[in-house]
Amino acid sequence: MAATVFNVMVIFCAVKLFKRSGDTMHLFILNMTVGDLILTVFCHPNELLIRKHDFLQQIHLCAVVHYFNWTGLAVSGLSLTMLNIDKLIYFRWPLNYDRSMSKRRAALFCLLIWGLSLGFISYCWLFNIVYIHSFDCSLQISLFMSPGKKFYYEIFLILFCVLPVTSSLIVSIYLFNLTRQKRNAGSGGDTSAFKSKVKSLVFIFATTAWTSCSLLPYRIMNLARIHLFTWSELSCEGKQLMNWIAWILIYLLTINPIINPLITSLIYAPYRMTIKKFLVNIPVGNRPFYNYQGEHLHLDSRYMGMQCWMVRKCF
Predict the structure, then answer these.
(1) Do 176 and 292 reside in the same domain of the chain?
(2) H or E stretch including 166?
(3) Do 122 and 192 have their domain in common?
(4) Which partner from 149, 210, 248, 312 sits 20 to 30 angstroms from 217, CA to CA?
(5) DSSP helix/strand/coil, 23
């Protein structure tokens, strides 16, 4: 519930800040947070309920949950990549930034992310490349597909999960070194816009580092499980160890979209201040009293100032 609230608040801040500043970065944050919201508000609660209650283990319900789970992961990962690319263009080619990453072009990139994600995932579902197992509602790869189509799950993992996060981490590390060099050289460090962009890099690096730590290990483990070893050949101790590791990595994967909005709202100053102003302006029963009191204190201070002026005039 708290994760959903924070995701909604980040979406509210992204829309408000984009209208105010026109920074395309907020569009990619909005896109990424919508992907996380799909996971926190729909996929994860339903996965928990399906695992807990047998009567909810319906094939159609599980198919919808898995479909939107893939969609949320794909949109969030690709949006994180575009967020890093946006900052890479600004710091690496600042003179071409306004032309390369205009508002319209950023909006088209966001639509392209949704189009690619929904198109690929819908293709896998419509042509039965993946299906839902009737026993435990798990997602399975069809064994009757042609050899080329059997790799669609690996393609999804690599293109929408592993590569976006890995490339984002590489770009974030590069941007950190680049901005440190620019600061030491003193180029562009006096402008407020440059300082604001540098501060935003802290948030981007934190989000990218957290996503890398929470999402990459489980995906890499899945690829290793498919290609490097066979489950049936493992010993009992090996299977038990792999189960423990898998559950820990699944837990990290589950809390990834929960921590992401917290990082955005607590680390990135514009979002933190916008949320703070929003919470302060929520009407409370005794707030008019404080406003009224504050107004009278302000009038009293002016009255005291007038008294002091009159005393000085008399002397």
Answers:
(1) no
(2) helix 163-185
(3) yes
(4) 149
(5) coil
Q: Give yes or no for residue 239 having a pLDDT over 70.
A: yes
Please tell me the pTM assigned to this model: 0.82
Q: If you ran DSSP here, which 8-state letter would residue 187 be given? A: S
Residues 177 and 315 in one domain: no
Can you tell me the distance from the alpha carbon of 207 to that of 263, in angstroms, rounded to the nearest whole number?
A: 7
Task: Round the CA-based radius of gyration of the chain to a whole number and report it.
Answer: 26
CB atoms within 10 A of CB 37: 21
> Beta partners for 141?
130
Residues 218, 84 share a domain: yes
Cα atoms found within 13 Å of the Cα of residue 102, Cβ hemisphere only: 4
Closest CA to 138 of 189, 72, 86, 69: 69
User: Domain span at residue 161?
Assistant: 2-282
The residue behind tokens 């590569």 is 163
**3-state helix vs strand vs coil in the chain, percent to 5:** 85, 0, 15
pLDDT 10s digits, 118-156? 999 999 888 888 877 776 677 776 655 555 566 888 889
Distance CA 39, CA 73 (A): 8
Residues of the chain with pLDDT > 70, as a percent, come to 81
What tokens does 51 get? 């695992």
Contact 167, 81 (CB under 8 A): yes
Q: Do 146 and 272 reside in the same domain of the chain? A: yes
Residue 22 near residue 103, CB atoms below 8 Å: yes
Tell me the two tokens of residue 190: 């006096």
Q: Based on the domain organization, do 312 and 188 belong to the same domain?
A: no
d(CA 48, CA 51): 5
Say which residues have a Cβ less than 8 Å from residue 80's Cβ, sequence separation at least 6.
Answer: 28, 32, 164, 165, 168, 207, 208, 211
Query: Chain centroid to CA 134: how far?
Result: 32
